[in-house]
Amino acid sequence: MRYLLISDIHGNLEALEKVLSLAEGKWDKALCLGDLVGYGPDPNRVIEKVRALDPVLIRGNHDRACCGQMDLSDFNQLAKMASLWTQRKLTPEHLKFLQQLPQGPLVVDWFEIFHGSWLDEDEYVVSPIEALPNLREMPSQMGLFGHTHVMGGFMLTTREKFQSIRTIPRGKKTSTIFQLEDGCRYLVNPGSVGQPRDGDWRAGFALLDGENRSVEYIRTTYDLKKTQQKMIKGGLPDLLARRLAVGR
Ligand code: ZN
User: Fold this and answer.
1) pTM for the full model?
2) Which residues in the chain show pLDDT less than 50?
């Protein structure tokens, strides 16, 4: 089975459309790791596009925030403004759709998917401090996660050595293949489609080949200007439009 891994789309339609056109014909099942909406200008159209993929989905914190399931006091001012903006834009049907999204972790095939971490859907896995307990306690060999908007992930070798996964496309490179090995344990992050924060503004996603046990990390440019113009015209904070250009 070949899986399309998308996460943290955040209402960015142009980035999502580019990702889907590049991935066309290369996957059998789509997996979405949460945060379909929040920040970006096209929450309704992004939900429609994602639903049409018939994916396995879990909820993200912004999905919860934008459908009124979460207290916004933990959000910074920009995230709060974007959540309220999105909430006003969402159709009643899409609000209900977000409210019904399942919580991770969710077992899929021989691996699991979750938004933040296996232990806590809202946890940011950014260092060994968070990654190690999850790598050790998660029953599956691999977990797919998002939330940090940073492509890559972490692993434990057969000798229990901790490593960051650094095999990701940088500079002008658009794709890298990371080979999974028996006996190692993995936390894999496909990066963010709609608001990368790893210093690379390009949309990120991944393809998981279950048979060859490999992950292909992919970056692609998209019509960033169009997204930014829609955000500014729609009344979203300028800063949110500007951060897309720097990938922070
Ligand atoms: Zn997110």
Assistant:
1) 0.97
2) none
